[in-house]
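Step 1: inspect the first sequence and its tokens.
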Amino acid sequence: MMMHSSVIFSSAKPSWAPLRVKAVYSTSTGDSNSMAATVPAPKWAQKTITLPPLRRGCHLVTSEILKEIRPDLSEFKCGLAHVFLQHTSASLTINENYDSDVRDDTETFLNKIVPEGRSAPWKHTLEGPDDMPAHIKSSMFGCALTIPISDGRLNMGTWQGIWLCEHRDAPTPRRVVVTLNGI
């Protein structure tokens, strides 16, 4: 049996000395008498979810996503959920899941920092004056999230939720691809 170890660098130690940690798994060296632990094969699951059109602003969509992935998610003990939005004029983020004022204030902030309208300096306005500002806002927050999976659940904090931020005035359905990987 061969034990693996990893090197972790900790900024708390002076001079960046590596800290050795024993791995929680082992692999067999091919010896049939070996008592190596069996490492489960990784599992994969993927689902594309279409969220309904939502008005401009930040919307909590955790429950809609969980409703669609719960059967697959429950099969994972440990892993990662990758959530990817297939659009360039909306975005995803993880933030406050209780007080809707946080979502409203975030929308207010985005509108103040990224100017819109005919006086804005943008060249790209093929789909209207909110087109380029939507692309910029989407790039600011991003289109993907990675969330740990623990015991069949998304391992987010108590006050965290998944937001879809719609940056366009005309609501449109949004596709989200959720990929689960783990054991």
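Step 2: inspect the second sequence and its tokens, then contrast the two.
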Amino acid sequence: MRKLVYYVASTLDGFIAAPDGSYDFLPLEPDVAAHLSAEWPQTFPTFTHAQFGIASPPAGRFDALLMGRATYDPALKIGVTSPYAHLTQYVFSRSLPPSDDPQVEIVDADPVAFVRDLKQQPGGDIWLCGGGQLAGQLLDEVDELVVKLHPIVAGSGIPLADRGFTPTRFTLVDTLPFDSGLVVLRYTAGAR
């Protein structure tokens, strides 16, 4: 069965973006960029592959990604309808019209039921790209959580998982610290 992997950057206090949705305060340091482009190349937007020396199409474990409307919006604002053209992209939105791009499907269905069905279909793992509201709805479906933890305290913003108080335990399986202070933490889901 396919796994749902929530791979995301976060501050120490658990925010993935500023209150306005921007995330430029979470820098991509050179030491981290080299590692991520080698180990997680599929998580870079397609139009950045040449800049980071990533083969096209990049090899990796994912063949699909999920994102919310707010995560998709920055690409749309610069005229990119398929930011991750190397993957099948599912955008959860009740307000966007169907996409003309064959790599992008606009989904207005229940995310949990959709993901449970998607996991049963053949294919590679599924990357939950963001945002916080979608992650909050899907947290119980997440099989692996990979957090690029920045040494920054933001104070407020978009939380890693926006949902009511529901403590959910994950098991730490790997840590990778970088000289820049960022730590990549990899967790698996607890018993369900």
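Step 3: confirm your contrast with the notes below.
Residues 4-18+60-189 form a domain with the Dihydrofolate Reductase, subunit A fold (CATH 3.40.430.10). Residues 63 and 87 are 5 Å apart (CA to CA).
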